[in-house]
Design brief:
128 residues; mainly beta; 7-stranded mixed sheet; 48% strand; globular
Amino acid sequence: QVQLVESGGGLVQAGDSLKLSCAASGGTFSSYAMGWFRQAPGKGREFVGAINWTGDRTYYGDSVKARFTISRDNAKNTVYLQINNLKPEDAAVYYCAADLIYSTAQAMATMAEHYQYWGQGTQVTVSS
């Protein structure tokens, strides 16, 4: 059983940067793709981006390109989400998720239902 724990969220000001972490345990971290999603109040879960198991390929949702960067450290069983130039519309609960089935080395899953394991989420609040 894969367990995921996010951390690093908090209250920040617009224009600030933030780095979220997601620590994994159970399973073999280096064998599954990792995704980040976010959910704002009253909205559905939005795909932020994903990284393949080796960490050499990433893919981002259109709304976050250029400001968000995903990376992973397989030695530490951790995936990261760097967010730069935060905007009020970035405020949401951010979730990391693991996919062992649908992603390939070249194409990561982008749909929430294609991820089998989820963290509890970390809240990001942005003040303007």
